[in-house]
Amino acid sequence: MPANPSINRRAFTHAIAALRARLARPRVRAGLRVLGWTLGVLYFAFALLVLALRYAILPEIENYRPDIERVLTAKLGQQVAIRHIEAGWQGLRPSLTLSGLELRDAAKRPVLVLEHVEADLGWSSLLYLAPRLHRLEIVAPAVAVRRDAAGKLFVAGLAVEASSAEDGIGDWLLAQRRVIIRDATVTWHDELRGAPLLQLSRLNFDLRSSGNRHRFGLTIDPPRPLAKRIDLRGDFKGKGIDLLDSWTGEAYVALDQADLAALRTWVDYPVDLPRGSGSVRLWLDIAAKRLTSVTADVKLADLQLRAAKDAPLLDLQRFEGRLVGKRFAEGYEAEAKRLTLQTRDGVRLDPTDFRLRWEAPAANRLARGEFSATGLDLAALRDLAAHLPLDPKVRQKLATWAPRGRVLDLAASWTGEAGALQSWKVKGRFERLGLVAVGQSPGFSGVSGTVSGDEKGGSLELASREVTVDMPSVFAEPRVKFDTLGARTSWRVNAGQIVVDLTKVEFQNSDAAGEISGSYRTRPDGPGEIDVSAELKRAAGSAVSRYIPLAVGQNVRDWLNEALVGGLASESTLRLKGDLAKFPFRDGKDGIFQVKGRFRGAVLRFAAGWPEIRGVDGELLFDGVRMLIKASKGTLLGGTIASVTAEIPDLESTAEVLNIAGKVSGPTAEFLKFIEASPLGERIDHYTAPLVAVGKGELDLKLGMPLRQLDRTQVEGRYRFSGNRLMADPSLPPLTEVNGELRFTADRLEANKVRAILLGAPLTVDVATGGDGLVTIKAAGSAGVRELRQHFGHPVFEYLSGSTPWTGTALIRKRHVEVRLESSLKGIASSLPVPFNKSATEARNLVVERKPVLAAAAASPAAVPPAREQWLLSLGDNVRAQVQRRLDAQDTAIERGVVAIGLPPHLPERGLLVAAEVETLDVDFWRRVFGEGARAAVPVSQVALHADKFLILGRSFSNFNVQASHDRDTWRADVNGDLLAGHVEWSGEGAGRLAGRLSRVVIPDGTSQIMPGEGEEPTELPAINLVIDRFNARGRDFGEIKLQAENHEGQWHARMDVKNEDGTLSGQGRWRPHFSSPLTQLEFKLNAKSVEKLLTRFGYPQAIKRGTATLEGLLGWAGSPLAIDYPSLSGKLKLDAANGQFSKLEPGVGRLLGVLSLQSLPRRITLDFRDVFSEGFAFDSIAGESTVTRGILETKDLQIVGPAARVMLNGSVNLPNETQNLRVRVNPALGDTVALGTVALVNPTVGAVAWLAQKIFKDPLGQAFSFEYAVTGSWADPKVEKIGAEKIAAPPKEGGKP
């Protein structure tokens, strides 16, 4: 509130009035007059003194120099000499300037020379009656300081005595108003340390004294590598050097950018400091020669120090902060602010504040202490503790417990000595707190929360994430991780016991989530009493084993770990109450231990090697020493379980037994998988693996498993099935309507009177397992041909009828399987060729056996699995087969075997031999049965065959023998018979290669005939190198034939030579087998020495008399060489014949000869040439050329010249349509003869060429007999028309008018 001006004025007026009244008193007025006269006298005395100094003394100061030297010598205790003195005034104070001030030793030698010293005299000298300086300033002195090896100190060469220093110079300097030293240079030589010379330059010192208060400042520039600057300041109170015990004050030291390691050459440190640099600020409080308080600001880097002799070296990258230490009468106090450090090995201490205060016990109170901290990194402090001067036991405990985490806002206080605290109090919070488990004490990490308490009780709250609790004395997997952990707990101390109340503990991790509540009370004689209830909101079934305590046996925990996989638990609870010394409360009277809950979607692997149960829903119960698992839902290999229980009656027993019982219903196929996947599958050598089943059944299974001796597991099971379908192999018929019961144990499998239907017929199956592991399967039934035909669909069954009974046996031991099937075949009739034909009433035994072939080195049948198997077959007395196969994982191959018909079987060294001796072998029949081009299902490598009658391609070969062998990719065969003899070789590489030499090949007339080219268009032809010395077809001898062919650059190149006594045929061609545009080209030449004989050899005797001929040409067509494609046929033909005569021919001899002989002309017309042609036409020559274009053959100059007439032909012939359009001109007056050579075209061995010529020269002259005729129409019914004797004109193209 502002002051009131009127009030202030009244107060001032009142004070003036009071002063006037006091001054008006007589005594006061008298005293003032005396004081006035005294001050006046002093003023004038001082004025006279000043005038005397200014004008009388100071100008003559040089005359007083000896007196001044004596005074200074007396005061300093050292002889002083001055070279020159000047006087002046500094304001109102006299000022002296001394030049050449020398301090001398006892021998009067100068040891210190001060060239320039200024001194201002103080008027206080009048009061003390001694010189007192207002200012003493020394400029640029150079002082050498030395300490000898004995520790004695010398300044400027003068020994310094402690007493003289204190009594002389020290007291005199403190008595001056101000002492200044500017720009001094000091050298320090410490012989005691053996240190090198140290020179300190630019030393400035300022000492100011006022009564008992003394303030000073000192700055030094040391050599640059040592430090940038040293700054020392002080403010003290004291009367004299001899009274230092009574001095008090404070000092300040600053050391900038100093190399602390280098300074230790001249300075002693309380710790070993081999390396370090930085800046230090120190504030020191001193009293009675004792340091009472220290405050240090440090900023150091690259620091190495050893705080104790037995401590390792501490290597710091940086060290910063403020450190405070205080000492007082009752104790001490230590404090740090913003303290931070970082070591080279990664230890880091973030900025933190802490304060510690301790008071020693006194007569009427206990020791007490306080500690507070804003943040403590326990891991960093633990790592640093190894470098600090601590008790070894403390270091060991820190290393053992390994504390970590941060403690924040900590406030703690206590009374009493360590280990016997009378009271204590603590409050704070913590983050990521952790300790290592030691002995029975659990460890933990990641714990965060708050704590508040004292010696009577307190509270603890947790709010933690990613927590790990380590309990090696409780769980086999001691580390339990929690995603979250929250708790509200409290404790209290009651009668020496600690009672912990768990108000609410919440936890969550990947295994479970739930809540815990209850209490725990310690007991001096045991682990304590507990009363805890827990509820799990969620739990993983596979994690149950991890939370089973070590009190439960190892075998049980191992079984739970492997048995329960996956799944989720719900409605799970834990109840634990009682004295923990009596856990797990076997009789239920001393306490309660019960864990129960439901789970779903779990996998139960109840025993090693047995199939697992999937999708299990059920209950889990631990009640005292009993464990029970009930599964109400699940699947076992596709089957649905009705109920499964797994129980261990006594968890503490030394021989824990797991009893499992259950019922499963489902597909039989899944039950077979169950057998296969169980140890029983190995026991029976997995013989059920290939079985395929359709249908359902019910499994009843019981197991008794000693967990310490699982190899003694007891198994008892039954599987009941009805209306099932079973298939052993895809190639075999299935069993239907399979009904029965299968019983099994761990090593036995049995079934009696299992009924089934096979191919419509009933059968029974018995299965038994012997004590030696031998499994015996017996089956009996019947088989009908109709059902076999329907199932297999093979043509061979068309020749069979009826049905027959059969029996079978299979013996299985380990990997050895023996099979035997038998049937009399009575009831089955066969119309197959000999030796496979029989009547229905005839019995002919059929036996099929499979046996393992043991390795030679095997000591016993069970020692080594067979690497081979043998199949035996016998049919009656004439058919035998024996085959050995090698069994590999990747392949099954026949090593050797024999099929013998009518002969005793003899196994070859390798390969498969087919040997037969029969009266008749109808190859055509078996080709129809097995299909054209069918290949053997087994790799035949040898053939030995004899047949009295060999039927093939509608022809019959008698007394036929074949000896053939197959080596790699080549067949070699020697054949011998009445119609065929020689040696041939066939190689299947690429398109194949046929080679050999046959002495004779005779093709008899047959009931059927297969023409070349019939069938599908070939895509490739083999290479051929074949010589036939004598080739006879249908009774006609063609002579020697040589045929060579090669596949080269995608084309088939062939050459053929036919040679006999009457003529030769040679030709060459090529075939391009392209899928869209195949092409065949043929170039040939036929030479007939005697046309008459050659035609007779080809089956046309007396067609032409005498004569020679040559026919050559070049033809091509789209297609293979096996069939001519007439619509695409193109090329050229040339005929030249001479000196022959056409004989009178009957119809059908040949169309070509009918045309050339002209004998049909008289039958078509009634002219006067009958005597010329009817009895045969003699020719001197036949010559002409023809061209073929797309199946149309054209000729313009064909002439037949004979002695009776000259005939000229031109026109065209349509080969695909078998039509013609020709002009024929006859000149009967001419005496030329017609050549006979063209008749060679009818030679059937020439193939397509002869047949083509035959088409060209069809009978063209119908009924005409005149000079000129037109021949049109088809070849079968030509039309002849006389058109006159004019010159023959070119006929119109095929299809136009004549």
UniProtKB/TrEMBL annotation:
Q: Where is the YhdP central domain?
A: 30-1280
Bilayer-crossing residues are: 34-57
UniProt keyword list: Membrane, Transmembrane, Transmembrane helix
Q: Which Pfam families match?
A: YhdP
InterPro entries linked to this entry: YhdP, YhdP_central
The protein's name: Uncharacterized protein (TIGR02099 family)
Q: What is the lineage of its organism?
A: Bacteria, Pseudomonadati, Pseudomonadota, Betaproteobacteria, Nitrosomonadales
